[in-house]
Amino acid sequence: MSSESTTKMHPQFVASEDLAQVLSKMAMSTQAIHADDFVSSHRAIAPAMHVAVNYRYARDPDQLVPGENIDPNSPLEPFVYSRYSSPNNNRFEAVLKRIFHGGIMTYSTGLAAFHAIMVLLNPKRVFIGDGYHGVHGNIDVMTKLTGVQKLSLDELDKVGPGDIIHIETPLNPTGEARNLSYYSAKAHAVGAYLTVDSTFAPPPLQDPLQFGVDVVLHSGTKYIGGHSDMMCGILVVHPDRVAEGWIDTLYAERLVMGNVMGNLEGWLGLRSLRTLELRVKRQSDTAQQLVSWIHHELRDASSEVSRVVESIRHASLQEKNIQDGWLKRQMAGGFGPVFAIWLKTPDHAKRLPSKLHIFQHATSLGDVESLIEWRAMSDSTCDERLLRISCGVEDPQDLKWDLLQGFRALCE
């Protein structure tokens, strides 16, 4: 298929004009349920699961049009091959487009999505701070292929046209925030691009596009999926960049790189989007309750918490930034469901997860189950005293009890 014909196939569905106008005035929770009501040609409320890879062409030779496969019985679904588009993924992207307010492209994983950014922009330099080690590893691979340089955020005086400033906020593994308006001004003043990993704060917590971000990255495996059963990556492209053709280019490049999301993952993702707002708000509120409790207990040297815990970090504790105003504007919906604690010894950090009953000791985050990870298990660069905590949707008081009895068990 030519690049022209494949671009025409890209499924950036828009609902009927009336529905689009009505939905645009409604809340995120309503849009997440109804944005794809008219993407499918059938009337079933629950989306069907389509796992087909390929689709029959018309039997009538006069109806064969290269690059198209219109089915008169299903005019909204001109499918050919699932690497181009598929029913599940089209509906998933339709809802994402509505609630993320930008152009959408989905991928097999979050790292595949970041790799797509690197291929799209092909920068000479990437300015990046702390954050997910997988992204740093991906840049290292690209250095081998293209010679791209990786510089720190302390070297922004060197940033120039075509460079990328990549910010992760909230930050992995601490859940601390970074000022997007500041980095947006730095990037665009010199013709550089700002890309942001917003995995730790999906809607409704923050919308990086409002602060001039060019591309937002989400590991959809985390909060978008939310149930420990799917992997995907998502790019949200600023409308101005969509107008410049970025989505068309990303689509054409995804076709040949083959990093498309699976059909089953598209169906699971659509299922999960229906409850995204409910889950994330609950998880963020729970995290803030636990962080506030631990932070308060650390002020009392005789408390059971302070006997075990050395320190804690989370966006809600960035008091000066909250007072300055930028953090509250940026994270108007809440400060995020992930935080980190440092215990007094590596041995205590290694042992604490085994003392807990509700928190599951596993990597990743964003699930309905609360997770805790001795971070050294998956990131060798981390302090061995560090534990990353991802709040699920369990009762906050039960989670508090679980942590407290775990701290007590370490002291016995």
UniProtKB/TrEMBL annotation:
Keywords linked to the UniProt accession: Pyridoxal phosphate
Pfam families assigned to the protein according to its UniProt record, in alphabetical order: Cys_Met_Meta_PP (PF01053)
Biological processes annotated in GO: transsulfuration
Organism expressing this protein natively: Penicillium cataractarum
Protein name: Cystathionine beta-lyase
A Gene Ontology cellular-component term: cytoplasm
Gene Ontology terms for molecular function: carbon-sulfur lyase activity; pyridoxal phosphate binding
Cofactor: pyridoxal 5'-phosphate
SUPFAM superfamilies: PLP-dependent transferases (SSF53383)
Family recorded in the similarity comment: Belongs to the trans-sulfuration enzymes family.
Alphabetical list of PROSITE patterns matching this protein: CYS_MET_METAB_PP
Positions bearing N6-(pyridoxal phosphate)lysine: K222
